[in-house]
Amino acid sequence: MVLAEVAGCVIIKRIAKFAPYTNLGDRRQVMLIGFSVGNYKSFKETVTISMVASSITEEEKELDTNNVFEVNRKLKLLKTAAIYGANASGKSNLVAAINFMKWFVLNSSKETQVSEAIDVEAFRLSTETEKEPSFFEIVFLIEEKTFRYGFEVNAREVVSEWLFQADDSEEKMLFERDLDNFILDDFLEGQGISDKTRSNALFLSVVAQFNGKLSGKILLWFSKNLQLISGLQDRQYRKETLESFENDRHRHDIIEFIKKLDLGIADIEIINQPVFVVANNNTPVYGSSYGSLYPISAMKPAVKTVHRKYDADGKQTSLELFDIEKHESEGTNKLFALAGILLDTLRKGKILLIDELDARLHPLITRELICLFNSNETNPHNAQLIFTTHDTNLLSSKTFRKDQIWFTEKDNKGATDLYSLVEYKVGKNASFERDYIIGKYGAIPFIGNFKELIGELHE
Questions:
Q1: Which terminus in the chain has less CB density within 10 A, N or C?
Q2: 119: closest CA among 98, 106, 103, 95?
Q3: Are residues 376 and 283 located together in one domain of the fold?
Q4: Residue 251 lies in a domain
Q5: pLDDT means per 10 residues in the chain (459 residues)?
Q6: Do 287 and 348 sit in the same domain of this protein?
Q7: What is the residue range of 290's domain?
Q8: Counted domains in the chain
Q9: Residues 390, 88: Cα–Cα separation, whole Å
């Protein structure tokens, strides 16, 4: 096994050998610059997570070299961002906000009807926000052009919507919407379509349905390049890994990825097995042929892990097949389920957001997954990873720059704030993990006295 030390991480070089991109525009079209949300779930005021690299320099120079990439002479972006915070502080709500924006952009023009409510949840713990819309805005790059797109919505309608494009010197408005009033500047593909846009649908989505070129590219950016998953519900993403097995090159990468994580697995096989089709009441569904009934079956892929079997002298004698769901750990199942989408993100330079990345994973494995992104060698196409975590070991492993570390914290009125470690004055020899645990940066739980509770239980 060939290993390399990069900023405290052991990088598996083999995983870096993806097919190179020849089109620089394709490689740059998926970059995320920032996302803002306000009056949504636990966010009362508008907060912003930015992937723009600050002007800081780190003592570990590899962090500046590997964790940051240059878009142009004015803009440098971060490859990863870690979000810390107490339970119920709002970390998952940030991922949910981006997920809602993606869903609404892709589906508002086709899945909602005139009378349907918009499934958006405003901040509920203040009378100030009860009748106000929720705010969503994202800044991103497509083909080296910067766009800022956003909207405000409530349960009934789209209150406002806007799209701006920026170049080196200025930002220009493409369109703005205030309820049913539209201002279209250079957005020629939107001409004549505003009157076809329902009050509960996004104008951008409707224009894309009418084959708008730019709007179609933006929807494709949301659909193909912005990927969001939950680390607690990861098995639903196993389909991505199974589909990757159909490509021999991708299959090899996935198997190598699993083998190098020290899971004791020598190989992986996919076996199609028949399963009976059942109805809602869990009874088999039958078909008929020439007057006879027979249970209907379908083929379902079963994942088998291959393990080596040894004799008393330690000599390998054979191979044993295990069913991954029945015989392997929850952590192994998670890594297999995520392997396809992780490697696809790195291979194609996409954006991946994972809620609870570290759930069911050993801290060293979590660190290795992050290091795949924080490396010029294993992430040559500048894929970006944003994740929530409770793994404080990462803070002491020289894995991040200060501007890559984010915190969520609720105030005494239940509203979430989002802020970065770069906002703090931190000494050169400071321990991020120690200072975080003792509450120097906030974003930790304040736990009550359990001894009093135990005393009450004994009464």
A1: C
A2: 103
A3: no
A4: no
A5: 46 46 45 97 98 91 95 94 96 97 94 81 96 97 94 97 88 95 91 93 96 96 93 74 88 93 93 69 61 61 93 95 94 93 94 95 95 95 97 92 97 97 87 91 83 64
A6: no
A7: 264-327
A8: 2
A9: 12
